[in-house]
Amino acid sequence: MAGGNNGTRRQRPNILITGTPGTGKSTTASALAEATNFKHICVGDLVKEKNLHDGWDDQFESYIINEDLVCDELEDIMVGGGNIVDYHGCDFFPERWFDAVVVLQTENSVLYDRLTRRGYSGTKLSNNIECEIFQVMLEEANDSYKEEIVVALQSNTLQDIDNNVARLKERIESWRP
């Protein structure tokens, strides 16, 4: 399904907030949605609520997301714009959906503490820390979207999150279809 929105342009942008687990995606997306009256879509929650998965992965202690089901579920919602989507992956979403892709990044020591507090350990913890060290999410975003819509933002402190929300709100307010 190439091409845009059936000949109509969105009046409001869609924003993807991505990054390694623990970088502040949900906190940032929720605060930004509140500040802009946009809809916050947490893909992880959507997968659980609507059973958009192919079972449970014991090694990584997470659902095995069915990307096709997720995209089918979101297609009509995304056409209208005004959505902030939050997920730790980004390469399976249609490029046409997003007007900005934000990759949150966190210093390794801060991320380690956040993930440990969440109960991450072993393979799950080490894989996520390595993902951040090697900037896997930023590379994935740059490979999947036009360079000019991808932005990396630091997300180490609550002040960083506040600054990011203010910056993104400003970007939304100045967006023109």
TrEMBL record:
It is found in: Cytoplasm; Nucleus. It is an enzyme of class 2 (transferase). This is Adenylate kinase isoenzyme 6 homolog. GO terms for molecular function: AMP kinase activity; ATP binding; ATP hydrolysis activity. Residues 42-65 are annotated as: NMPbind. Its EC number is 2.7.4.3. Residues 1-24 are annotated as: Disordered. It catalyses: ATP + H2O = ADP + phosphate + H(+); AMP + ATP = 2 ADP. Belongs to the adenylate kinase family. AK6 subfamily. The lineage of its organism: Eukaryota, Viridiplantae, Streptophyta, Embryophyta, Tracheophyta. Interacts with small ribosomal subunit protein uS11. Not a structural component of 43S pre-ribosomes, but transiently interacts with them by binding to uS11.
